[in-house]
Amino acid sequence: MEFTPSYFRHYPDEKGFFGPFGGCYVPKELEAAFEEVDEAYQTICRSAQFINELRRIRREFQGRPTPVYHCNRLSRKIGRCQIYLKREDLNHTGAHKLNHCMGEGLLAHYMGKKRLIAETGAGQHGVALATAAAYFGLECEIHMGEVDIAKQAPNVARMKILGANVVPVSRGLKTLKEAVDSAFESYLNSYKESIYCIGSVVGPHPFPMMVRDFQMVVGQEAREQFLEMTGLLPDAVTACVGGGSNSAGFFTGFLADDVEIIGAEPLGTGPKIGCHAASITYGKPGILHGFNSMMLQDDQGEPLPVYSNASGLDYPSVGPEHAFWASQGRVHYQTVSDDEAVEAFFNLSRYEGIIPALESSHAIAAAIRWARSHQSGAIIANCSGRGDKDLDYVLERYGDGSDRLF
Ligand SMILES: *Cc1c(COP(=O)(O)O)cnc(C)c1O
Description:
The chain is α/β, with parallel strands linked by helices. It contains 16 helices and 14 strands. It has helices at 7-10, 28-44, 48-62, 72-78, 97-111, 124-136, 146-151, 153-161, 176-188, 207-230, 245-252, 279-282, 320-328, 338-352, 358-372, 391-398; strands at 17-18, 21-22, 68-71, 82-87, 115-119, 139-145, 165-169, 194-196, 236-240, 260-268, 284-288, 291-295, 332-337, 378-383. The strands form 4 sheets. Strands 3-4-14-9-10-13 form a 6-stranded mixed β-sheet, with helices on both faces. Strands 7-6-5-8 form a 4-stranded parallel β-sheet, sandwiched between helices. A two-stranded antiparallel ribbon has the order 1-2. The N and C termini lie far apart (45 Å). Pyridoxal-5'-phosphate (PLP) binds at residues 95, 97, 124, 200, 240-247, 312-313, 357, 359-360, 384-385.
């Protein structure tokens, strides 16, 4: 298949499939709700009013465009290649997630909904969505496992300050999976006045498409900015892949170009079950949370335990479009361990004065690896978020870096 600009007219198809991946596997009672969102989105996203309003929000509220930055000192330390960053960490609230949350909020506003519903694990999606809800004057209901509530106190506080209703989930293991079930139930009971807002390019159609579309600005900006800076396209681009939203948005900008695309999956502490969350590298096709994709599952099709030191990356599946790109060989997925990510975290901090999120550190590690194995050329890594949220964890587990050689 050809990855030409017309790719976006054909993928996903009208049922939400990217080849065999994607779709909308939801309980019968919810089919109408997802269809309503799909129809509304297909109409609204083409209206000049919606597009102009989203552009204005991005410029005036989010602080877009975010810059592309040349890591001069880091590049010289690593070798002969040039490493660049797309600075999504400079978005309002400190990460790329606001790109799709503002889009989802604006869609809800146009559809006349009065409430946004979602689940959150580490709380990053909850905070971004609560921000969007405050902006649009919508109610916000965030379902969160009690275990996660105890672990993520600062994000719970942020959500509450922003006016969200944080619903504690006390069943089962009291973490993300139960929070998803709880959020779905609430949506089922209230979809006339609510919209369910998914936090990545996952879930039932139309969310993988919609969230990708809202994130495409990252790749479009980066391509234009890099061309303007250097007169050329980069040789390669890379981003970390959890659910896959920051990477999907960034990669789409370069899909039709002669540019190598590398997705960085979390290897955690190694390839054993429960030690990583590399769904494409070690998974197989399966259905989870309403969509068909590559997933880490046992013989009964139940999701396996996953782990990464970056809490935004520990999901046992991945957006269906990534599974498709992998199957077509258009994007190469590599794994990056906890330790490599932490090394990149300290290197970027020391050499460039930028403290990246641990998720983003996986992409930076992949860029460093690429630069070490090439004689010349340029790579852009998507710096999906800033590292402030990870400082306590890094300090406790890895120290402040003062014992490392730079
Ligand atoms: C949530 C998060 C991610 C992972 O989500 P994707 O959908 O894979 O992009 C990556 N980086 C940061 C900073 C995050 O907050």
